[in-house]
Automatic annotation (TrEMBL):
GO terms for molecular function: iron ion binding; iron-sulfur cluster binding. One of its GO terms (biological process) is iron-sulfur cluster assembly. This is Iron transporter. Residues 6-92 form the Scaffold protein Nfu/NifU N-terminal domain. Belongs to the NifU family. It comes from Salipiger pallidus. InterPro entries: FSCA_dom_sf (IPR034904), Nfu/NifU_N (IPR014824), Nfu/NifU_N_sf (IPR036498), NFU1-like (IPR035433), NIF_FeS_clus_asmbl_NifU_C (IPR001075).
Length: 189
């Protein structure tokens, strides 16, 4: 019998909770399941989507972020999510089926390769660790004519404060260190 104490933390997104099972979830990288469509890649995500009201699952190194629909109440969803996480770890199933996870920055080649390298380094060292604390991730998607395109995942996707975080936090940080950056915009993938 597996005994787990799964902690929960709120995130800046009221529709999203962060669950900490007290052990590695992915270990390295992240896996984003904004809908049940791709959940077959993860037995854990698939199990979580079976819970009524769950609309999104994001897997991090040591946490699981779950998003519910607006009509669902956390008082009903949270116990079922805790049960699904516990059942998954008791089953012995892997978190990811086959090779999966490790979603990260988009590849980039071209004349701005050096600038993009600096952008990715700042995201990895300054932005992503802070965003992971809130149960999400932000990855590089593209760079064109001074505009950095970022993909928001987990608790960050659809969070009311994410636009403010992008504009006031990340955009100011990147513009401070990299003069070629003029703006930051989110992308939907």
């Amino acid at each position: 019998m597996l005994h787990m104490f799964i902690q929960t933390e709120s995130t800046p997104n009221p529709a999203t909770l962060k669950f900490l099972p007290g052990q590695a979830v992915l270990g390295a990288g992240t896996a984003d399941f904004p809908s049940a469509d791709g959940a077959d890649a993860s037995p854990l995500a698939k199990r979580l989507f079976e819970v009524a009201g769950v609309t999104g699952v994001f897997l991090g190194g040591d946490f699981v972020t779950v998003t519910k629909d607006d009509g669902a109440d956390w008082d009903h969803v949270k116990p079922a999510v805790l049960g699904a996480i516990l059942a998954h770890y008791q089953s012995g199933d892997p978190v990811m089926a086959g090779e999966g996870g490790a979603s990260g920055h988009a590849a980039f080649e071209g004349e701005d390769e050096e600038i993009v390298g600096q952008i990715k380094e700042l995201l990895d060292s300054r932005v992503r660790p802070a965003v992971a604390q809130d149960g999400g991730d932000i990855t590089f998607h593209g760079f064109e004519r001074g505009v950095v395109y970022l993909h928001m995942q987990g608790a960050c996707a659809g969070c009311p404060s994410s636009t403010l975080t992008l504009k006031m936090g990340i955009e100011n940080l990147l513009r401070h260190y990299i003069p070629e950056v003029t703006e930051v915009r989110p992308v939907a993938v």
